Amino acid sequence: MHPIIIFSKMDFSQSNLFGYIEDLQELTIIERPVRRSLKTPEEIERLTVDEELSDIERAVYLLSSGQDIQGTSVVANLPVLMRQNPAETLRRVLPKIREVLHVAGVEMQLTAAVSFLTVLQEELVSIHTYSHSFLHIILQHLEHRDAGVSNAWLETLLAVIEALPKETVRHEILNPLVSKAQLSQTLQSRLVSCKIMGKLANKFEAHIIKRDILPLVKSLCQDAEFEVRSCMCRQLEHIAQAIGAELTKTVVLPELVELARDEGSSVRLAAFETLVNLLDMFDADDRSQTVLPLVKSFCEKSFKADETILVSLSFHLGKLCNGLYGIFTPEQHLRFFEFYKKLSTLGLQQENGHNDNQLQVQTLEQEKKYILIRKNCAYNFPAMIVFVDPKNFHLELYSIFFCLCHDPEVPVRHTMALSFYEVAKLLNSGVYTIHKELVTLLQDESLEVLDALVGHLPEILELMTNGGENCGSENKLLSIPDLITALTTAEQRAATSLKWRTHEKLLQKYACLPHIISSDQIYYRFLHRMLTIILTNNVLPVQKAAARTLCVYLRYNRKQEQRHEVIQKLIEQLGQGKSYWNRLRFLDTCEFIMELFSKSFFCKYFFLPVLELTHDPVANVRMKLCYLLPKVKSTLRIPTDKHLLQQLELCIRKLLCQEKDKDVLTIVKRTVLELDRMEISVDAFQKRFYENDLLDQEKERQEHLLEMEQLEKEKQQNEGRSTNINNKIFEKKRRDSKTSSVLAKSITLSVPGSSSATPAGKEDKKSKLVRSQSFSTQALHPKYNTLDKCPNKSSATGYMSSVSGMGKNCMLPFTDDSFRTHSGGNSGNAAFPSSSSRNLYNSADQKSSGNKEIQSRKMNIKSRKSNS
């Protein structure tokens, strides 16, 4: 059959027809390079290399007579050749590379710089050999005509300087540098000299720097080209840190002051940034008399200059304000703060009365710089809190904080999300004032903002709910509902996006919620959502993150009914699920449970469901189970869990005998050997397991405390109900006693001297008591029947029935020890009373209650006869 081609309605007018022809011509143009890229037989013959050649011989051949792309491949493969045969590579290959590099193109030059750096970093040769064989090649190509190639070789040389000995650096690099830094040399040579001197400053002592390097530094700071002055100015920071505070004050600071007044804007900018970075090295006099006037003039002229200066100033403003904090007058303090406020909203004000096209183009060009300025203001916001004082945050900085968190540009909000934790820490007791902004950032439309905020989300939430003395309980209670809504919204938005790493990170951080909100809020808003993610999400890391967070929620859940419900869902929907993928996730969840819970908890609820997967029809599930069996065995304790150990051994025997998949059988045999080498811990503490036993005991204690807390709450509720019932009964009895006393008086008045009534009343009371006892014995039987349905740890059948029937009738306080009297000698047999024994008990109780009723009736008849 031929495929049916459905043609859409096409317009064959003249204009559209020419459009179709142009599209066809474009398709032919696209195909032409493909045809040209095919190699002719002659080219293939020329590119073919003899397979019998060794790696060294092939490299030499390709460098000698091959094409450029083949030579570049050999240069990129140089570290591999050095690992295999360093002596032959240095003797035969490296000289060829040196010859080729003189005429090589840009690509081979860049590849060679990277390969030489790799040889140094991986220490494939000694430093002495490297300086003898590689250093001269690096120095020869530092002044390459291509700026990118020159910078690549310079980066390699700067890395080499750190590893070379001082004498080699002095003779091979420092001495030739004197001639390279002269004005007679090229611009590229002088720029390279500036960067090398900044690196050499960390290599030598202060007196050598003062004698050999500082004269060159002064010369380059006064160079005729502004590029050289700017480059040397940026290296003054490294030189100042090497020579110390005294020489910096006498030598470096005067040069910086002169460069700060330079005619070139890039030179002034470099001087300003260097001054800010060196503030810690200046004393108070230098800061107040020299640095502060320069900074003030720089800030005043910044708005009239290029926006590039504003970008740098906004980035360094926080460090500058805190560095000069001690010498500011109140007026200067206010001026710098107002300057920050102006920068934080720069570009958001609408210009009125200007609609020229030239202005619009200029605004579009400036928009990116304005965004970068506001981003830098967001970066410096924590520093400005320190500058203003956290106590004045609400009055001075909250409006700026609000604007930055609601900025229309994503990079600004992203930076605010990154610095949100620092802001919360600085505010401390006033952290509740920024709660609305946290909710706003959690619900931000950009997932980049959410990803930045999630990094410190547990710490932020803890500060929000518990931070500060002034954050009263009312504020906490009001803030939590908004937070819960924002958190659920954030998770749903991350789940619907394609950025699964953000979703995974968010789920991992949500594990902190048990310390933030109540157990019921987690149960109803988050726990079931985690289970849904495990069942429906298609990304494995996201499923594992949800599984671990769910286990944490289960760990801190305070209600036994909820815990039982979650455990039952995990076993039924994951462990017994129809999809093998869900059963694999059940094993992952069990691994997290073994990590977070005590050994007894895992053995009580999950040990037998895990072993049931040995009969799984999918080989991958059985294979994963085999990998997990050593951890499963480590949860057992002897002699308490001896029956579970027997179940484990029985399952392993079945796997060894019945497994048909070769891969699974191989893993089973390997696992058996590992299990044989394992030692099982006993109930008593042992030295080798002491720390693990202590940790497990602490987990078990916390679980027990949660159960006891729940039992105590239920007990208090029951006591409250019983007291209410007793009060009602007491009121009713009091009313009945009043009416009965009135009736008794009337009876005594009407029938005087009737003494035979009292023994009859006693007999009636006795008969009522006997009947109430018979009814109470019959009412107790259902309770005993529910006790029989409670889980028994020694039986697989009993365990599964407890899991499936877990509900209101089966409570945790009935521990396994209370049922050991029912178990027989064999652990494999069921430990429940038979149905015939239950029928005997019930029939016996019915007979006893019937006899008591007959006796009570006889007594009533006798009392009536005596009365008559």
Automatic annotation (TrEMBL):
InterPro entries associated with the record: ARM-like, ARM-type_fold, HEAT_type_2, PPP4R4
GO cellular component terms given for this protein: cytosol; protein serine/threonine phosphatase complex
Keywords: Coiled coil, Cytoplasm, Phosphoprotein, Repeat
Alphabetized PROSITE patterns for the sequence: HEAT_REPEAT
Residue numbers spanned by region Disordered: 712-737, 751-777, 821-868
Residue stretches of biased makeup (Polar residues): 821-853
Gene Ontology MF, one: protein phosphatase regulator activity
Biased composition (Basic residues): 859-868
Subcellular location: Cytoplasm
Subunit architecture: Serine/threonine-protein phosphatase 4 (PP4) occurs in different assemblies of the catalytic and one or more regulatory subunits. Component of the PP4 complex PPP4C-PPP4R4.
Reported function: Putative regulatory subunit of serine/threonine-protein phosphatase 4.
Protein name: Serine/threonine-protein phosphatase 4 regulatory subunit 4
Source species: Melopsittacus undulatus
Gene name as annotated: LOC101876231
